[in-house]
Amino acid sequence: MTATPMVFTHIVNFQWRDGDDVSVTAIVDALSVLASRLKGVRSYVCGPDIGLTPEAYDFAVVGTFDDRDCFTAYRDHPEHQRILNELILPHLRARTVVQLEHAPDELERAPGESLPGPR
Hints:
Blueprint: E1 7-16, H1 24-37, E2 41-48, E3 59-65, H2 68-76, H3 78-88, E4 92-102
Antiparallel strand pairs: 1-3, 1-4, 2-3
């Protein structure tokens, strides 16, 4: 029996420094264009917090990649580094990063739904 291939999801949250004028539209546009041009990006969404939870961070990125290598190519890409260095890091107060591997079909299951296959 072969192992189920695992996909790689990267989640990052940014908190901006108080009073900074952050160009959120430029960040969203630049990251979205980059993700659309790279091999192995399964899904990618980013944007500002909508303000429903007090003390939430200001901006989030959630990207799912075919594997670790595809994520590493994204992370190390010169355009990604430019976006970080020019648009994000100058305004950053704090960030959180979580990365996880999971079966591809976990993205399509409803909460509480069982995984397919033998039990």
